[in-house]
């Protein structure tokens, strides 16, 4: 038995195999056919819908054009009408999952050093190294995933400008990027209960810990349980010159001890993640949210505050009610001492063609200031 999934196929009258790479957790395809520049978009789309993966041996840029043509065919299909916001959300997620599955059927080969052995292929070795680690052997990957790796690599090089920091955060592949900066501004503006110590729970890229340190908090303990996030946060804080001020700790939610300020920005939507990468967006059964609230009282110093950063998008989608959120505060022995709100500024909030436009247009992100009752 191998320690990694394998794809098997027949090519040139030979049985072949290669390592299967999928950061989304997709299983290796069971049926694979070799395809090149002669394959039409209609044929590729039909085969992909039937569950047959296409191992591309043609020109790289033609593969990209083929994927775009397949995407247009998917997007032209009529959507099932929804009778409620929650149904619209579930239909949208179902559509996105099916779209990802179909487009994920177009595969590219990677050499042992992550080079793509195709005409006009870009050099993706550094992007693959960042996501997968050291190269070992030839493998297959979906073009869709590979484009995600390339995009993440470019974001990591460019970084995201954070005005509250006077600098940039460089997100890593698989770590949530602070491209929606409105919640960061809330952290930069809320009145600090203390400048001595703060905990940043689920630090991700390290952006909140960095903002707290920039505001003068003498010592920040930033936690996460994802090795990628821990490495990403450490890299960003070092780059910003805050490595001595912020301590990075591997922990499930809280570190040991108490603090006068504890901040958490959990995933905003209580739904099941379809892939490991989606865990930054979806919080099944609100586990992280409820875990933070449930443990806050025993980790806060007397007179301290817990800052919960949460969008109300879930409420507009019918996934969680405001009453349920307030009841969770009450059950955890917490009271609200203040709240700061901000409207989103991202393009989706004004995109009327988005299936979830009504909910996105009404969305408000809040920083809830919580204290022990």
Automatic annotation (TrEMBL):
GO biological process: methylation
Keywords in alphabetical order: Methyltransferase, S-adenosyl-L-methionine, Transferase
Pfam families, sorted: MTS
CDD domains per record: AdoMet_MTases
Residue ranges constituting the Methyltransferase small domain according to the UniProt record: 195-273
UniProt GO molecular function: nucleic acid binding; protein-glutamine N-methyltransferase activity
SUPFAM superfamilies with a match to the protein in the record: S-adenosyl-L-methionine-dependent methyltransferases
InterPro entries noted in UniProt: DNA_methylase_N6_adenine_CS, N5-glutamine_MTase, SAM-dependent_MTases_sf, Small_mtfrase_dom
Cited PANTHER family: HEMK METHYLTRANSFERASE (PTHR18895), MTRF1L RELEASE FACTOR GLUTAMINE METHYLTRANSFERASE (PTHR18895:SF74)
Protein name (record): Methylase
Species this chain originates from: Sulfurimicrobium lacus
